[in-house]
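User: Teach me something about this protein's shape.
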Amino acid sequence: MAALGRVWGPAVLRPRGAGPAGRRGVRALRRSPVRVLPPPKKEEAGAAPAEAPPGPRREPPPPPAVERSAAGPRLWYEKAAPGDRRLGKVVTIAKSKKFRDNHGKVLLEGHRLIKDALEAGAVPQTLFFSTVGHLKELPEAEIKRASLVKVKFEDIKIWSDLVTPQGLLGIFSKPDHAKMSYPATQLTNSLPLLLICDNIRDPGNLGTILRSATGVGCEKVLITKGCVDPWEPKVLRAGMGAHFRLPIIANLDWESVPSNLPAGTQVYVADNKDPGAAAKTTSVPRGAGRAGSAPGNTKAPAKSRPEAAPEHEDEEEAADIPELATQCYYEDWARTPVAVVIGGETHGLSVDALHLAASTGGKRLVIPMVPGVDSLNAAIAAAVVLFEGRRQLLQRHKQEDDRQKVPVAG
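Assistant: First, the predicted structure itself:
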């Protein structure tokens, strides 16, 4: 192999017969040496190219605008430059339900919520953080799959929905309940008790209901069309991680609800109808029987009834409401498996929910209150009924175990 040599410009680059103009160009080249490389060695025909010498493979250096994080030797994050608008743009878009539905992305905020999501198998896409310490508290193997961007705390504070921002925001792929890994303790302590949400429009109420369902140990939660999106930021905040502890199936139409229930499920509806009143269903218009209505109140809210609706339409609608027996919530009703429907405070229980309960032999569950009290909050009513259902199921299970342990006289 010929040795690598250096030849100065005048000896190689000056063309013959170059004039003064040519010499001026050559004079500029005299200041820099020219490296002459030998021709590449020709490989024999059919021979494989030479392999790289054995040895440890070096990792490529980080990109120019990336700093090494103290959270791990292979964890890289990008430092956002001044005026970077990605955070504001991403957060604004992710708060839109249309964007969540079309692109399948959700916004999570706070250390606890993001950690619960990662541990349950949710896929992170981008994490915005203000200090490297936030990354140390998250599972490194999971956040390595995301783009990590360090931003100023002031920027996160501008776009945060929390009163006291924690300096951590994440964009995740919308979780699929069929692919999630829920905590083993939650699955072990779950009961054959399901919750069906009907016309829950308030984000805080839905989040609190999901939190109660998690504490009760519900097997799953079904959310029908007409309810607020469970992945709305306010619902996530009120849920306190419930979204990643039990299956939540949202945006269901009533025709598909039965297929998401175990075989033989009996459906009950939470209601405030006076159990001592006569069961007159022909005078109960649509929207009555909601968890937030007053006892004995059989009139629909003014907003739920058209102003100029003909009387015969109201009569037809009332006639379509099935007749359901009524009992107090503390009486025996929870048998395996069972589902409870909670209606919203404004629109109340839908006729579809009442038909589903009637078709399964269910009843209305009433929470008696002091006369003159207007109503119960839907989230409170859900907690009262669900925890009573838990108590009854556990008591029934204990009685069955005791019967099995009784020795048979020989």
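Now, about its shape. The longest strand covers residues 124-129. The chain has a mean pLDDT of 79. If you'd like, I can walk through any region in more detail.
User: That's plenty for now, thanks!
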